[in-house]
Amino acid sequence: MTTTYLSIAKVAPGRYIGFMRSVGLKVLKNKLSEYVRLVANGETVLVTDRDRVVAELVPPRPGRSPLLADAQLAAAVREGWLSPPAYVDHAPPPRLPVARMDVLLAELASDRGDR
Question: Which residue in 41, 51, 45 sits closest to 28, CA to CA?
Answer without folding.
Answer: 45
